[in-house]
């Protein structure tokens, strides 16, 4: 397996140094290999891209308009109760739309400027964002934490914010039940 990663790293280095831009494709052994993903390979065809978050199993998946899983990863949603207040912190289940997005410098204005790189807001102050603290446990104040490189990919290569081209309807995100 190490050899496969070394070859992939070498290929990426060659592409970068040669200033060649390549389309992302599924490669066995890569982060884009969905064959053994814990998320379904296909969901009901919705005719649009969708992100599905499963807080019970701690995974997320990005699905193309044809319903095929494109990329997946670990997700940590809101905990049962916030430590500070004792109030519920669970991420609200339901179907939403991404309505606002930020870059690498995105921060929480609610929780002491906590870093939320590549934030994608979908329900009030709830957002999908990158974090170095992603576990198989729901640990947030209500946001959905995913690995930062996954958040960056979603933000710049998958998610669409609301604009005239999509009828002011950002990418759909579905938060499953706990």
Protein described:
The chain has a nine-stranded mixed beta sheet, with helices on one face. The longest helix is centred in the first third of the chain and has 16 residues. The protein has 178 residues and is α+β, with helices and mostly antiparallel strands. Helices cover 15% and strands 24% of the residues. It contains two helices and nine strands, in the order αββββββββαβ. The chain is globular. The protein has two domains: 30 residues, no CATH class; 142 residues, L,D-transpeptidase catalytic domain-like (Beta Barrel), CATH 2.40.440. The relative contact order is 0.19.
Give the tags.
about 180 residues, alpha+beta, L,D-transpeptidase catalytic domain-like, 2 domains, nine-stranded mixed β-sheet, about 15% helix, disordered N terminus
Give me the secondary-structure topology.
Elements: H1 2-17, E1 50-54, E2 59-63, E3 69-76, E4 94-97, E5 100-101, E6 120-123, E7 126-131, E8 144-147, H2 148-157, E9 172-175
Parallel strand pairs: 1-9, 7-8
Antiparallel strand pairs: 1-2, 2-3, 3-8, 4-9, 5-6, 6-7
Unreliable residue stretches: 1-30
Number of domains: 2
* Chain-averaged pLDDT: 84
Number of strands: 9
Radius of gyration: 17 Å
Which strand order does the major sheet show? 4-9-1-2-3-8-7-6-5
Biggest sheet character: 9 strands, mixed
Instruction: Identify the overall geometry.
Output: globular
Which architecture name of the largest domain does CATH use? Answer: Beta Barrel
CATH class of the largest domain: Mainly Beta
